[in-house]
């Protein structure tokens, strides 16, 4: 499967995981992290909050690259009504993991596609259930430092995945980018097409 596009794409992210996932489309793209304050105004649902922050990440990049299609994303973990962002300290990482232990939480990634005549956003949700964790397990994981740059204080793709009992939905969405839904959306927008291959 080979995809082609007439557009230039910019991923508005400093996350190496998003870059890796986006590169699965095998089209050329640039990366330009948007340095914004990750706050959403007003009382929003977690889905709208993730979309709002994802959109904000695209704005400065669209302004300086008016012909490009800019993609921003934001991942939020929430447990019932509480949003668990990136932990501010190892103590907070432990606190988050104690809360997640033995329970089901939502991981929402908002994606915003802006510029070159496109403007569309969506939020994808995955449900993740953790095993009951012991304090010893949590301390040992937090000590690795892996929690610190990740929403909810764990990485499903790293040792944090050892805590996961059930996942319902898109795994890549938990890692930070629902690439299959993004692929389907870009096809629908007709900004990506399949290269016609001559049959032999
Ligand atoms: C739950 C979970 C989150 N994460 C990551 C995804 C996101 O990179 C991060 C949440 O922070 P985000 O603010 O969504 O993203 P970021 O700051 O890493 O990158 P940028 O804003 O430049 O795009 O947590 C994992 O890697 N694995 C997981 O299992």
Automatic annotation (TrEMBL):
Coiled coil: none
Keywords, sorted A to Z: Cytoplasm, Hydrolase, Nucleotide metabolism
GO cellular component, one term: cytoplasm
GO molecular function, one term: UTP diphosphatase activity
Function: Nucleoside triphosphate pyrophosphatase that hydrolyzes dTTP and UTP. May have a dual role in cell division arrest and in preventing the incorporation of modified nucleotides into cellular nucleic acids.
Family to which this protein belongs: Belongs to the Maf family. YhdE subfamily.
Listed name of the protein: dTTP/UTP pyrophosphatase
């Amino acid at each position: 499967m080979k995809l082609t596009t007439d557009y230039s794409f910019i991923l508005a992210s400093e996350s190496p995981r998003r870059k890796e996932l986006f590169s699965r489309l095998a089209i050329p793209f640039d990366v330009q992290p948007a340095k914004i304050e990750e706050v959403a105004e007003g009382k929003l649902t977690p889905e709208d909050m993730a979309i709002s922050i994802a959109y904000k990440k695209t704005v400065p990049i669209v302004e300086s690259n008016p012909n490009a299609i800019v993609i921003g994303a934001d991942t939020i973990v929430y447990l019932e009504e509480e949003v668990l962002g990136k932990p501010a300290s190892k103590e907070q990482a432990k606190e988050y993991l104690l809360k997640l232990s033995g329970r089901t939480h939502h991981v929402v990634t908002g994606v915003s596609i802006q510029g070159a005549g496109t403007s569309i956003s969506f939020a994808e949700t995955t449900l993740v259930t953790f095993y009951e964790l012991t304090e010893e397990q949590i301390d040992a994981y937090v000590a690795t430092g892996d929690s610190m740059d990740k929403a909810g204080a764990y990485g499903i793709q790293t040792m944090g995945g050892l805590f996961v009992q059930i996942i319902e939905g898109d795994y890549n969405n938990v890692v930070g980018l629902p690439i299959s839904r993004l692929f389907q959306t870009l096809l629908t927008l007709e900004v990506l097409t399949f290269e016609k291959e001559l049959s032999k």
